[in-house]
UniProtKB/TrEMBL annotation:
InterPro entries: MTMR12-like_C, MTMR12_PTP, Myotubularin, Myotubularin-like_Pase_dom, PH-like_dom_sf, Prot-tyrosine_phosphatase-like. It comes from Neophocaena asiaeorientalis asiaeorientalis (Yangtze finless porpoise). Acts as an adapter for the myotubularin-related phosphatases. Regulates phosphatase MTM1 protein stability and possibly its intracellular location. By stabilizing MTM1 protein levels, required for skeletal muscle maintenance but not for myogenesis. The keyword Coiled coil applies. One of its GO terms (cellular component) is membrane. This is Myotubularin-related protein 12. It is found in: Cytoplasm, Myofibril, Sarcomere; Sarcoplasmic reticulum. CDD domains: PTP-MTMR12. Residues 661-691 form a coiled coil. PANTHER family: MYOTUBULARIN-RELATED, MYOTUBULARIN-RELATED PROTEIN 12.
Length: 747
């Protein structure tokens, strides 16, 4: 709640009365600079972090209809973050802020997290970039984690305004060199700091032994082998140093086309079938080169397709599935639903919620990804076929689809250690271009595509539908998505293992130089205290198989604001054969003859899919077996915790799923206490569950978007009908119908 140092004004929605409010006229602010300076809070810098520019007497606003409320303080820009230092930060530091990040504060924005910067000139909002001739009176920053910050510069000295605005624009938007990222400054300065062994948190897949262990775990070592032919990246800089290929494949084939056209193993299921991926051969026009490629792929194909014992189905994700452009366009529209500037804007867009949500196509893209994964699972599980995923570089949609298949089929990947190992294997070591896809260097907006965020959203659908099957929580997924933009971890800041390894050496001369010790994001103790980490672990996780009660519908919850689209005909997907007429004719010529016997029509494929899917849904869920999502109609929902957490109007005090979880934990505690008395012993896990339950009960009324919601705006409904609401009736009628329209959250 806002206490001392608050600039307030009349109008707007009533807020809870603070203990003390100082009403300060704008002309008085400069006269109080001495007092402000005395109360300034200290700027905390990480090792290697340097202050670049700052401005004082900046008002951090909370927009509330026609009035402005806020706290004044300093706005600073370092080579790591933009930070606002409120002059009475203690007023906001209350017990409700339970989930604190030790690296990024509530009012901190890492430079990589900045999405768009706007300036307000004479009440008009304009995008800011490059050199400015005129400086704004207000700065608005939209973040990639969907926070929105408003900074009023009207009372700041002109020279400070120029410095801070120019500095923020330059350090967040100007193209960068890889070596100039804060990641390297931090790693160099923190070289003597002790870090935990990353192998305590995940299998890193940076040694041959790691791959052998994974082969043994999945029983794939009978048909596949780990190879070190690319050790030192002498064959291909795109591939990892170690990977797995079919046993019959001669290792000398790998260098032929720099790793292209080689089937690389992802995972083996219990039936012995495997999921493979392959990067396509470069397109050639020369007939001689085409013939060489055809002969090469013919030989490769014979090693993986040996009917009746080994049958392979090819899924060409480059032509038969989503495009990166579709993902980028859909998310660009989707995120605008949550970058809300004020209460008025929220209520004005609320009446158009369904049409805006549907027009973004983001939920439909999630549905298509989950459906594609189920189709592949049907081939592996029901048809006993190997599946070969084909993509230009096998580093985007291959990572997405193969990871989803493993999460659904392998219960190990639903544990936290297993999930983190999966991300390491398929995304980090698998060569997903995080540097480009997150646009960390600000070199090309066209390359920025949220493929990994799409994967996390798909996993969230599974976590939401089947909570007992996952050891981690939705909060874990949310903070993992936030960690994409924290440049003290190396995990998401390189395009390939080769790029990481070649840039880890410290610049300088002398024999004393040693490789940089880069942190991994999987060590959550860097960001969170032990108490906060309990919110990443699911206390309802079913660790061992139990007797099935057959209550499949137990995980369905009544929802308030419709976070999913109503039951409608989903958009038709492109025809799904192994090839379409538009498919690249080179691949069709090279592989078409071999696979033609296996091609089903799209109608047959649809029938097989439906039969397999309905059969699974008719059985009770096995949380330690195959786990499929519900993908029809409103089953695909908006990930409320991530997307709505910064919008106070979208919160339900004392409601939402967190209220249900809190009550469940209380019941579990009671059962455990009784069990403890009976068995007269104490289980270590009980302490963790009790810790989580106590954390949930420390606030009298939890928000439905706990633990992130901070209630920065206090409006819970429009005081007066806005233009969009007037059509619904007069103000009295609107109040009566409030519950009908104001449906926020998901219980």
């Amino acid at each position: 709640m806002l206490g001392k140092g608050v600039v307030g004004g009349g109008g707007g929605t009533k807020a809870p009365k603070p203990s003390f409010v100082s009403y300060v006229r704008p002309e008085e602010i400069h006269t109080n600079e001495k007092e402000v300076t005395e109360k300034e809070v200290t700027l905390h810098l990480l090792p290697g972090e340097q202050l670049l520019c700052e401005a004082s007497t900046v008002l951090k606003c909370v927009q509330e209809d026609s009035c402005q409320r806020g706290i004044y303080g300093r706005l600073v820009c370092t080579d790591f973050k933009i930070a606002f230092l409120g002059d009475d930060e203690s007023a906001l530091d209350n017990d409700e802020t339970q989930f604190k990040n030790k690296v990024i504060g509530e009012n901190d924005i890492t430079l990589h997290c900045v999405d768009q910067i706007y300036g307000v000139f004479d009440e008009k909002k304009k995008t800011l970039f490059g050199q400015l001739k005129k400086y704004p009176e207000k700065l608005i920053i939209h973040c990639k984690d969907l926070r929105v910050f408003h900074f009023c510069l009207r009372y700041t000295k002109e020279e400070e305004v120029k410095r801070i605005v120019s500095g923020i624009i330059h350090h967040t938007q100007a193209p960068k060199l890889l070596k100039r990222l804060f990641l390297f400054s931090y790693a160099t300065a923190a070289q003597n700091h002790t870090a935990t062994d990353p192998k305590n948190h995940a299998v890193m897949f940076d040694t041959l032994q790691d791959w052998c262990w994974e082969l043994e775990r999945t029983k794939g070592n009978m048909k596949y082998k780990a190879v070190s032919v690319n050790e030192g990246y002498k064959v291909c800089e795109r591939l990892p140093a170690y990977f797995v290929v079919p046993t019959p494949l001669p290792e000398e084939d790998v260098p032929r086309f720099h790793g292209h056209g080689i089937p690389i193993w992802c995972w083996s299921c219990h039936s012995g079938c495997a999921l493979l991926k392959m990067s396509a051969l470069p397109k050639e026009q020369d007939d001689g080169v085409l013939q060489i490629q055809k002969n090469f792929l013919d030989g490769i194909y014979k090693t993986i397709h040996r009917p009746p014992y080994e049958i392979v189905k090819t899924e060409d994700l480059s032509s038969n599935f989503l495009s990166l452009q579709e993902i980028q366009t859909a998310y660009s529209k989707f995120k605008q639903l949550f970058l809300i500037d004020n209460s008025t804007e929220f209520w004005d867009t609320d009446i158009k919620w369904f049409s805006l949500l549907e027009s973004s196509s983001w939920l439909d893209i999630i549905r298509r990804c989950l459906k594609k994964a189920i189709e592949i699972i049907e081939c592996l599980e029901a048809q006993n076929m190997n599946v070969l995923l084909l993509e230009e570089n096998a580093s985007d949609l291959c990572c997405l689809v193969s990871s989803l298949v493993q999460v659904m089929m392998d219960p190990h990947c639903r544990t936290r250690f297993g999930f983190q190992s999966l991300v390491q294997k398929e995304w980090i070591v698998g060569g997903h271009c995080f540097l480009d896809r997150c646009n960390h260097l600000r070199q090309s907006d066209k390359e920025e595509v949220p493929v990994f965020l799409l994967f996390l959203d798909c996993v969230w659908q599974l976590v939401h539908q089947h909570p007992p099957a996952f050891e981690f929580t939705e909060t874990y997924l949310t903070v993992l998505s936030d960690s994409l933009y924290i440049p003290i971890f190396s995990t998401f800041f390189f395009n390939s293992p080769h790029q990481k390894d070649t840039n880890m050496g410290r610049e300088g001369q002398g024999a004393q130089s040693k490789p940089l010790n880069l942190l991994t994001v999987w060590d959550w103790s860097v960001q969170f205290e032990p108490k906060a980490q309990t919110l990443l672990k699911n206390p309802l996780y079913v660790e061992k198989p139990k007797l099935d009660k057959g209550q499949r519908k137990g995980t369905h919850f009544k929802h308030q604001r419709q976070l999913s689209l109503p039951l409608t005909q989903s958009k038709s997907s492109p025809k799904r054969g192994f090839f379409r007429e538009e498919t690249d004719h080179l691949i069709k010529n090279l592989l078409g003859k071999r696979i033609s016997k296996l091609i089903n029509s799209s109608e047959e494929l649809q029938d097989n899919f439906r039969e397999f899917y309905d059969s699974w849904r008719s059985k009770p869920p096995n949380y330690h077996g195959l786990l499929l999502p519900h993908i029809e109609g409103p089953e695909i929902k908006v990930w409320a915790q991530r997307y709505l957490r910064w919008i106070p109007e979208a919160q339900i005090l004392g409601g939402g799923r967190v209220a249900t979880l809190s009550k469940l934990l209380e019941t579990m505690e009671e059962v455990q206490r009784l069990q403890e008395k009976i068995e007269e012993r104490h289980h270590s896990q009980e302490a963790l569950q009790a810790e989580a339950a106590s954390l949930l009960r420390t606030s009298a009324r939890l928000s439905s978007l706990f633990p992130f919601a901070l209630l920065q705006r206090h409006s819970s409904k429009p005081v007066l009908p806005t233009s969009g609401w007037k059509a619904l009736g007069d103000e009295e009628d609107l109040a009566k119908r409030e519950d009908e329209f104001v449906d926020l959250g998901d219980v």
